[in-house]
Amino acid sequence: MPNFSSMPNLERLNIEGCTSLRKLHSSIGAFFEMKFLKEFLLNRIGIKELPSSIGYLTSLDILDVSWCLKFQKLPNSFANMRRLRKLYMRGTNISSSIGHLESLEALDPLILLKL
Fold first, then answer.
1. Is the separation of the CB atoms in 6 and 28 below 8 Å?
2. How far from the centroid of its chain's Cα atoms is residue 85's Cα?
3. d(Cα 106, Cα 110) in Å, to the nearest integer?
4. One-character DSSP codes across 44-71
5. Alpha-carbon distances, residue 105 vs 48, 50, 87 (angstroms)
6. Alpha-carbon torsion 21, 30, 75, 92, what sign?
7. What is the pTM of this model?
């Protein structure tokens, strides 16, 4: 896993399908430096949760955690991501932690459906 702190201009981060990935690299905490990241694709990886620093991704438009079967909760800082339009979470164990998403006014409510 690369050191993300050296990639401040990254616009799209795709870690899809890394099923053996259990934890994101500690440099992922440098989110506040990633001001241009629009898409963060994590579907089908083995993580249980996202770091609270994800709330610094204020430019994020799309987050995909679909089919992260062990994924259980969104951090409270998630409510800071005001530009988030699409949150894909089909096939996760997220349930009680989605209440704080009400403040995300740009979020498409149909994307939240867990089918």
1. no
2. 12
3. 12
4. T---SB--GGGGG-TT--EEE-TT-TT-
5. 26, 21, 12
6. negative
7. 0.81
Tens-of-pLDDT digits for all 115 residues of the chain?
566 667 778 899 898 988 888 877 656 656 666 788 899 999 999 888 888 888 888 888 999 999 988 888 888 888 888 888 888 888 888 765 565 666 677 777 555 545 4
Q: Which amino acid is at 16?
A: E
Could you tell me the two tokens for 10?
């990254």
> In sequence order, what are the residues at sequence separation of 6 or more whose Cβ sits closer than 8 angstroms to the Cβ of residue 18?
44, 45, 46
Closest C-alpha to 87, from 99, 106, 21, 11:
106
Rounded Cα distance, 86 and 48, in Å:
20
